[in-house]
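Appendix B, Record 12. Input sequence as logged:
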Amino acid sequence: MIRSTSADSSQGVEGVRAAKLLRITNLIRARTYDRVQNLAVTFAADSGGVLLSGQVHTFYVKQLAQHAALDAMRGETALGSNAAMRHEILYNEIEVRHEAEATPPPAHMMKTTTHNGT
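Logged structural output:
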């Protein structure tokens, strides 16, 4: 008979959590074609829910990332995982940085004023 100690079970839980984060991360990268810069998938300290963070250029890519994470979590529950994992809260803190906000508009698009000397 094999007995597991509490240390073994805690390592097992951590292994499951790490595998889950990796599965979510890989699906986000695949679905967004790796367009999420500085992607981080972690567990929120306060609730244990999945937390997404990083930067993207469009809200569409942010939405793709969120749906990929939800699908990865849903796929896990469809395979019969622990019921406690079925209702995890997802926090999407991916920041949308529009390229237009990062750089000034071209000079020809700037409004110019002319002063008439008369």
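The chain has three helices and three strands.
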